[in-house]
Design a protein that fits this description.
The complex is a heterodimer of chains A (about 230) and B (about 220). Chain A is of the alpha/beta class and about 230 residues long. Chain A is built from 5 helices and 13 strands. Classes of the chains: A alpha/beta (about 230), B alpha/beta (about 220). Chains A and B meet through helix 3, helix 4 and helix 5 of A and helix 3 and helix 4 of B.
C-alpha cells in the first residue's frame, strides 16, 4: 500500500486491529448490501464483547446473525431486529443488550458521527420510550429530543465498485446505510465487487469519496434474498 | 359489514392526489398501491432508499440489490431515484412526503399512536415508524376498530408504549373513517351497513357525531 492506494489483499489484513469490546458500525438493510465477508472475518477472528451498530442483525445463518452463536456481540444498536431464533433467545435471557433506535435517527447518528456533529435535535421519538433520559427542547412550538452521534472504532461497508483510491459507487438499494457507516468509522473497511484504476470512475458519479475509506478489498458475494417476492405475469 | 383489507386499501386510495409522493407501511397500507385511480400518477417512497417503487419483479428480473422497506424484492418505476438512509429520512422528517399510511395497535383522542411494542411480547423494533409519524403532516392510520374480543383500539389514552405523540389526525378502521381534533374523535364516514350505534359501542375515546354520517362509497 502506498499513497492513496487503499487496496488490501486479504480479509485478515482488512480487519487487522479489531479488538474485543470495540464498536463496529455496519452498513446494510436486512440482508441487502451487507458486508458479508467482513462479517465472516469477524466470526473467524472470534472477537468478543462487540457493540454493533446496524439497522438489523441478519438472520440465523447469514449476516450479523452469525456472530451470535459464539456470543461475540455484547450490544446491538438497531431499528428492527429479531428475525432469528438465537437473537430472540439471547435478548430474552438478557445476554444481549439491545438499544432500539428509530431508523432515521440511526442514519442521522451515523451521518452526524462522521460529520463532526456531536448531537442533534429531532422530533422523532418525542413522548415515546426512546426519549427517556434525553434532553428535550422546544423550537417554534414543537418538541424535540437531543440524540447523540455515533462513531465506530471500525466501520464495515459493502459497495459495488471502487477505484484503488477508495472512491465508492453503490448499486440500487444496497446503498442504504453504507455511505453513512463509511464516514463514521475510525477505520473504515470496504469490500466491493469490482476495483478499477483511479480515473476510471466518473468523479460526478462517486457516492462516497475515498477520504473516508482506509482499507479496500475485492470480494465475492452470495447476496442472499430475505423476502423473495415475484409477480407471475410477464 | 366491516371493511375487508382490500376495501380499507380502496378507501385510502380515494385520498390520493395526482402528483403525490406516498410512503406505504407494511400490511394493508401496501395494498393501497393496487388501487391508484386510473390516470393518476403517484410515486411510492420506500424508506430504505427508493423513491419510485415499482411492482414485484418477474422471476427473471429479481435483483438482490433492489428491495423495499419490507425487505421484499421489487422493481423501480420510470423516473425512480436511489439514495442513502439519511437522505431518505431527511425527506420523511423534513415533511416532503405528501401522504403516509401505516398501521397501529392503538390510537387515542390526542392523536397519540402505539404501533411497535407490546410489553412482555417479543420486541422487534420500530423500524422507520417513529420517524414517519413525527415527520409527516398527512398521515392515515389503518387498523381494526376493536380486537376480536370487542375491545376498542380507539382510546381516550393509549395503553401501550407510544410510537408518536400528538401526530395522528386521520384513522380508517374496518368500521369507520375518523378525524382526530381538539382531543376528540369525529366520525366522518361509516363502513357500508355498519350502524353509528355499533361504532359508538366499539369506540372507547370520546366520539363526536355531527348529523347524519354518510356511508363510504367505493
Amino acid at each position: 500500500m502506498a499513497g492513496f492506494d487503499k487496496v488490501v489483499s486479504s480479509y485478515e489484513e482488512a480487519m487487522a486491529g479489531l479488538e474485543d469490546n470495540m464498536t463496529v458500525i455496519a452498513g446494510g438493510f436486512g440482508l441487502c448490501g451487507i458486508p458479508e465477508n467482513l462479517i465472516s472475518e469477524i466470526k473467524r477472528k472470534g472477537t468478543k464483547g462487540l457493540t454493533l451498530v446496524s439497522n438489523n442483525c441478519g438472520v440465523d445463518d447469514f449476516g450479523l446473525g452469525i456472530l451470535l452463536p459464539d456470543r461475540q456481540i455484547k450490544k446491538i444498536v438497531a431499528s428492527y431486529v429479531g428475525e432469528n431464533a438465537e437473537f430472540e433467545r439471547q435478548m430474552m435471557n438478557g445476554e444481549l443488550e439491545v438499544e432500539l433506535t428509530p431508523q432515521g435517527t440511526l442514519a442521522e447518528k451515523m451521518r452526524a458521527g462522521g460529520a463532526g456533529i456531536p448531537a442533534f435535535y429531532t422530533a422523532t421519538g418525542y413522548g415515546t420510550p426512546v426519549a427517556e433520559g434525553k434532553e428535550e427542547r422546544e423550537f417554534d412550538g414543537r418538541h424535540y429530543i437531543l440524540e447523540p452521534a455515533i462513531k465506530g472504532d471500525f466501520a464495515i461497508v459493502k459497495a459495488w465498485k471502487a477505484d484503488r483510491y477508495g472512491n465508492l459507487v453503490f448499486r440500487k438499494t444496497a446503498r442504504n446505510f453504507n455511505p453513512l457507516a463509511a464516514t463514521a468509522g475510525k477505520i473504515t473497511v470496504v469490500e466491493v465487487e469490482e476495483i478499477v484504476e483511479p480515473g476510471e470512475l466518473d468523479p460526478d458519479h462517486i457516492h462516497t469519496p475515498g477520504i473516508y475509506v482506509n482499507r479496500l478489498i475485492l470480494g465475492s458475494f452470495e447476496k442472499r434474498i430475505e423476502q423473495r417476492t415475484v409477480r407471475s405475469d410477464t | 359489514m366491516a371493511l375487508s383489507r382490500e376495501q380499507l386499501a380502496q378507501r385510502v386510495a380515494q385520498e390520493l392526489q395526482d402528483g403525490y409522493y406516498v410512503n406505504l407501511g407494511i400490511g394493508i397500507p401496501t395494498l393501497v398501491a393496487n388501487y391508484v385511480p386510473k390516470g393518476m400518477e403517484v410515486m411510492l417512497q420506500s424508506e430504505n432508499g427508493l423513491l419510485g417503487m415499482g411492482q414485484f419483479p418477474t422471476e427473471a428480473l429479481i435483483d438482490a440489490d433492489l428491495i423495499n422497506a419490507g425487505k421484499q424484492t421489487v422493481t423501480m418505476a420510470t423516473g425512480a431515484s436511489i439514495f442513502d438512509s439519511a437522505e431518505s429520512f431527511a425527506m420523511i422528517r423534513g415533511g416532503h412526503v405528501d401522504l403516509t399510511v401505516l398501521g397501529a395497535f392503538e390510537v387515542d383522542v390526542n392523536g397519540n399512536i402505539a404501533s411497535y411494542m407490546i410489553p412482555g411480547k417479543l420486541i422487534k423494533g420500530m423500524g422507520g415508524a417513529m420517524d414517519l409519524v413525527a415527520g409527516a403532516d398527512n398521515i392515515i392510520v389503518t387498523m381494526t376498530h376493536a380486537s376480536k374480543h370487542g375491545v376498542s383500539k380507539l382510546l381516550s389514552n393509549c395503553t401501550l408504549p407510544l410510537t408518536g405523540k400528538g401526530c395522528i389526525k386521520k384513522v380508517l378502521t374496518d368500521l369507520a373513517f375518523i378525524e382526530i381534533k381538539d382531543g376528540k374523535f369525529h366520525l366522518l364516514e361509516r363502513a357500508p351497513g355498519v350502524s353509528v350505534e355499533e361504532i359508538i359501542s366499539l369506540t372507547e375515546g370520546e366520539l363526536i357525531i355531527d348529523g347524519e354520517t354518510p356511508e363510504m362509497s367505493f
